[in-house]
């Protein structure tokens, strides 16, 4: 079951490249906007880079979350996977994983480019990548709850943001702290553990909550 | 009280089933028992609750009262469940994967040939017409190991030929001991069919 | 086995709108009178008779509104989480009525706590707004409230709205400790200790007793508000049933308004 589901997601990912390209383009574009609007913020190795980077990552995630279940919902494959799947939970988990591949992991890989553009010092880049690698899964997982419950609305974007952004706060706090510590050459093991813990906790809770939300959304049509 | 019992045996049974939607009782006191090999034709005006009954049986609608017994079923709603970027074969393989059963590729191709869409087997579903997509969906019912089919107006968008094939497929499925519940506005030409006409209750039942 | 049965029966009864309506009639009055007495006593005592703070002068007196408002606002959110849990597990309709009743009050009280915090902060910290840990947590609480409110507004169907908001309340409540903890961590990192509200010199009795009274008063007020809203909502939802007709008639409502209904309601909210 897992193999067939992953194969399908992979094929769709290859054919609908927009789902990967769009978040990345958005991230780069907003970086550009920051560079134009507030050049002093992104000029040199600055304290602001960590904050700007993480907020941009949060917004990118939010944009991509809205589309997380949307196409499956519209085509009816979502309701089919709730009815037909041996374990619907697995189907949801795979969707979340693939969404993370398309945004979270891509952002991690793009960090060496985007980070310095935002004024992040080179010494902070590895720490930043670690922080994003540990933190973005929590964003996808926690976000899936909001995405699942709002997928039935034709305009769910703002409600999704209201529901999900407060949940992102801990990730933002520990994430920026790691980046700052890495920039200052300090030890950030504790924060990294916390971030990993948050992601693990989200992994335990979120798919169930997302599944419950999706069942409600499917009943809404 | 709500009870939904999932059985392994092939039968469908309602005991004083009532369904509600948006705070309105659609139908109440539905009692019925169906054995394997029958086709239930679900009739009723628009909004009588045909779709809601099917969705309830599929486990997608939870605002009901009473009890029903059903095995796991194939459900076909208005949204077909085909991804437009994937080809019919890829979609069918995904359905097989969902149920954790091996995908019978040759049989899928044979059915595609029978339904006249073999040439399209490797064209993305988004490029198929509505009727052609419906035929792909028909293949997946046949391939599924589940023996109960819940079909919501399957004749929509089908041409005369395809309507004939649909009737054939349903008849064959019933003959092989399957069970079909089909909401429709056009008569099915299927032997052994039972007809259920859904009507709103005479008075609104308090919940 | 017998006890189990009895407990189960009682649990069902708890979910019954009619039973709820009848039993809370006296509670509403009790909470209403309690709120009135406590709030008047607390306000007069706190504003007029409690001694002025030796550092902050009279500005500290807004504490008598600020602290209880913040406390009740948090309690209401946790209450919504508990109601959401019960609603999801036992499908009890009354829990959604409870969530719907707690929501507006909690939202307003959170806003009140933020506003009075600003008013207090101006003379104490020198600015209306400081990004203090508690302030941020309270602001997040406000956003959690607004999120649930927006979600409820977006779903017209009662049953689905109940399930969706129960789920979101539960998820939010589970997250509150994590958010609070991380905000405190953030606060200790970013903020050199401003004015610590927690480690004030021990308050004299004349100062904290009015606060206690105000706290109780706010809880009574919240109880009164929530129960009244719930009762009204129960009557609206059950408007077609016979017992509502009986209740309304016994209160002397004009008979012409009442729709004589032949049907009776099933008394179990869990169905």
Can you put this structure into words, describing what you see?
The complex is a heterotrimer of chains A (221), B (207) and C (271). With 221 residues, chain A is mainly alpha-helical. Chain A is built from 10 helices and no strands. In chain A, α1 packs across α7. The longest helix of chain A has 32 residues, at 189-220. Chain A is elongated and about 55 Å long. With 207 residues, chain B is an alpha/beta fold. Chain B has 2 domains: 2-37 and 46-73 and 193-197, P-loop containing nucleotide triphosphate hydrolases (Rossmann fold, 3-Layer(aba) Sandwich); 88-183, Rossmann fold, CATH 3.40.50.300. In chain B, a hairpin with a 2-residue loop joins β2 (11-21) and β3. The model of chain B has no long low-confidence stretch (mean pLDDT 89). Chain C has one domain. Classes of the chains: A mainly alpha (221), B alpha/beta (207), C mainly alpha (271). The interface between A and B is medium-sized, with 28 and 32 residues.
Identify the notable features of this structure and list them briefly.
heterotrimer, A: 221 residues, mainly alpha, 84% helix, elongated, C: 271 residues, globular, disordered C terminus
Which radius of gyration of chain B do the C-alpha atoms yield?
17 Å
Share of helical residues of chain C = over 70%
From the helix content, strand content and strand pairing of chain C, which structural class follows?
mainly alpha
Q: Using the alpha-carbon principal axes, give the shape of chain C.
A: globular
Secondary structure tally: strands of chain B? 9
CATH superfamily of the largest domain in chain B: P-loop containing nucleotide triphosphate hydrolases
The percent of residues in helical segments of chain B reads: 25-40%
Short recap of the structure:
The complex is a heterotrimer of chains A (221), B (207) and C (271). Chain A is an all-alpha fold.
């Amino acid at each position: 079951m897992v193999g067939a589901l992953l194969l399908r997601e992979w094929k769709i990912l290859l054919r609908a490249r927009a789902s990967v390209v769009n978040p990345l383009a958005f991230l780069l574009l907003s970086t550009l906007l920051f560079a134009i609007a507030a050049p002093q913020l992104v000029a040199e190795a600055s304290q602001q880079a960590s904050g700007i980077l993480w907020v941009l990552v949060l917004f990118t995630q939010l944009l991509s979350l809205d589309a997380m279940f949307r196409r499956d919902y519209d085509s009816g494959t979502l309701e089919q996977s709730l009815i037909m799947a041996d374990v619907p939970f697995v189907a949801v988990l795979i969707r979340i994983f693939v969404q993370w591949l398309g945004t979270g992991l891509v952002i991690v890989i793009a960090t060496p480019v985007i980070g310095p553009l935002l004024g992040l010092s080179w010494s902070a880049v590895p720490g930043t990548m670690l922080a994003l690698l540990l933190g973005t899964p929590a964003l996808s997982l926690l976000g899936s709850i909001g995405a699942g419950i709002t997928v039935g609305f034709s305009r769910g974007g703002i409600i999704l943001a209201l529901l999900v952004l407060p949940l992102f706060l801990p990730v933002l706090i520990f994430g920026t702290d790691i980046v700052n510590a890495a920039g200052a050459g300090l030890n950030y093991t504790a924060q990294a553990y916390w971030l990993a813990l948050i992601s693990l906790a989200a992994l335990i809770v979120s798919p169930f909550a997302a599944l419950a939300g999706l069942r409600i959304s499917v009943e809404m049509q | 009280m709500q009870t939904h019992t999932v059985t392994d045996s092939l039968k469908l049974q309602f005991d004083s089933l009532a369904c509600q939607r948006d705070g309105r009782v659609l139908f109440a006191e539905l009692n019925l028992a169906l054995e394997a090999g029958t086709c239930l034709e679900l009739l009723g005006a628009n909004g009588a609750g045909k779709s809601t009954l099917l969705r309830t049986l599929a486990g997608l609608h939870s605002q009901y009262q009473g009890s029903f017994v059903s095995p796991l079923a194939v459900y076909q709603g208005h949204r077909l469940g085909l991804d437009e970027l994937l080809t019919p074969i890829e979609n069918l393989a995904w359905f097989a994967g969902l149920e954790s059963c091996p995908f019978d590729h040759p049989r899928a191709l044979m059915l595609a040939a029978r339904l006249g869409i073999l040439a399209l087997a490797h064209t993305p579903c988004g490029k198929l017409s509505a009727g052609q997509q419906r035929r792909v969906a028909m293949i997946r019912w046949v391939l599924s190991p589940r023996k109960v089919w819940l079909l919501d107006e399957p004749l929509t968008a089908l041409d005369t030929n395809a309507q004939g094939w649909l009737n054939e497929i349903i008849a064959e499925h019933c003959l092989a001991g399957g069970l079909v519940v089909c909401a429709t506005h056009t008569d099915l030409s299927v032997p052994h069919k039972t007809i259920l006409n859904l009507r709103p209750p005479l008075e609104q039942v308090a919940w | 086995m017998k006890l189990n049965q009895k407990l189960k029966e009682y649990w069902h009864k708890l979910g019954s709108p009619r039973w709820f309506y009848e039993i809370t009639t006296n509670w509403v009055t009790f909470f209403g009178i309690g709120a009135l007495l406590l709030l008047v006593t607390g306000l007069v005592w706190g504003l007029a008779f409690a001694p002025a703070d030796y550092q902050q002068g009279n500005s500290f007196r807004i504490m008598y509104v600020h602290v209880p408002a913040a406390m009740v606002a948090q309690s209401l959110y946790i209450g919504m989480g508990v109601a959401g849990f019960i609603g999801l597990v036992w499908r009890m309709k009354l829990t959604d009525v409870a969530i719907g009743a707690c929501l507006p009050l909690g939202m307003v009280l959170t806003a009140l706590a933020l506003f009075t915090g600003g008013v207090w902060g101006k003379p104490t910290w020198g600015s209306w707004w400081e990004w203090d840990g508690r302030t941020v947590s309270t602001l997040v609480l406000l956003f959690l409230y607004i999120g649930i409110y927006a979600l409820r507004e977006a779903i017209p169907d009662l049953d689905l709205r109940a399930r969706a908001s129960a789920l979101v309340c539960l998820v939010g409540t589970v997250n509150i400790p994590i958010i609070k903890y991380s905000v405190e961590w953030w606060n200790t990192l970013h903020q050199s200790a401003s004015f610590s509200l927690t480690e004030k010199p021990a308050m004299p009795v004349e100062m904290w007793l009015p606060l206690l009274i105000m706290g109780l008063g706010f809880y009574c007020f919240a109880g009164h508000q929530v129960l009244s809203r719930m009762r009204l909502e129960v009557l609206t939802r059950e408007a077609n049933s016979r017992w509502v007709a009986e209740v309304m008639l016994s209160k002397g409502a004009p008979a012409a308004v009442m729709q004589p209904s032949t049907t009776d309601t099933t008394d179990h909210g869990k169905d």
